[in-house]
Amino acid sequence: MVEAFNYSQELKQYLHRIIRRVDGLYAIIVSDRDGVPVIRAATENVPELALRPGFLATFSTGTDQASKLGLSRNKAIVSMYTSYQVVQLSKLPLILSFVASSQANTGVLLGLENELSDLLKDIKAAVDITVSQ
Amino acid sequence: MGCCCSSEDEKLSQDGDPDERTRLILPNPVSNSQVNHSDSYGSVPSSIAQQADEQSALSRILMQTANNVIDVSAIETHMVEQHEYIDRATQYSSRLTSICHSASVLNKLHRPALLVDVPALDRVLSAEPISASDLQFIRNTSDHAAAAMRKVVVTHKEDLVVNFGIP
């Protein structure tokens, strides 16, 4: 149990290290299609509304509809706000969300997908088992 | 007669992908089959089955069309209930603990990196430089270290090649 706790903490610390490294990044959230977080790391700068499942789940609807526009499957949606930007990537059945400052480098945020892909594969396997149960 | 036409219709819909210009609903065969239904009551079971097939084909077409239509206002948003949210979050965290034993995940987290990213490089570069005394101290120390390194001498005492266990 202690080991498990440490692991969970370790995973969060890893995400926090990425947050510290990328200038302007406030939160990394791995959630399911309905916005229920699987793992989440956030600083105090992130607006609370951006962490709500209702907000995160809008991506599922958005990506489904955007996939019908005839440009093949939609992979990511970047939303720019006055002070914030939200980058969401489709890793079905997971959603990878980054909440950052509007001044942050969007290309760097999109590039984090590659860095997190191995980790996401493992998390995806865990979630898939949950769904099948 | 009508059955022949309708079977052709079924073939089109069941075989999957007809040509993109193929009409989904052929007007004549359908009307023919409808006439047949009213005319002959003897073939009721087959006509019911046929009707059911048509219905399922139509509903399939309707569903497919509905799936392809972009209508954001008509989309029902599935809000997760509070208890369901908690249940799922707990389930996910327990699942995460189950994958913690696989060494691959931990190895990925501890992957060593020779170069480390420095966030906000402009701030680091525009920071105050170190004081002159500190700089002098560093120079003196490095000079002493270099001098000490130069004085290191290897003294030769034994043969470089030694035979082991050879009588």
CATH architecture title of chain A: 2-Layer Sandwich
Structural class of chain A: alpha+beta
Point out poorly predicted stretches of chain A: none
Mean pLDDT of chain A equals: 86
Question: What share of residues are in beta strands of chain B?
Answer: under 5%
Terminal CA distance of chain A reads 23 Å
- Strand/helix succession of chain A: HEEHEEEH
CATH class membership of chain A:
Alpha Beta
Number of strands of chain B: 0
Structural class of chain B: mainly alpha
Kindly provide the radius of gyration of chain A, computed on alpha-carbon positions and rounded to a whole number of angstroms.
Answer: 15 Å
The percentage helix of chain A is 40-55%
Number of helices of chain A: 3
Give the oligomeric state of the chains in this entry, treating copies of one chain as homo and distinct chains as hetero. Answer: heterodimer
Shape of chain A: globular
Largest sheet of chain B: none
InterPro entries (chain B): LAMTOR1/MEH1 (IPR028209)
Biased composition (Polar residues) (chain B): 29-49
Main location (chain B): membrane
Region (Disordered) (chain B): 1-49
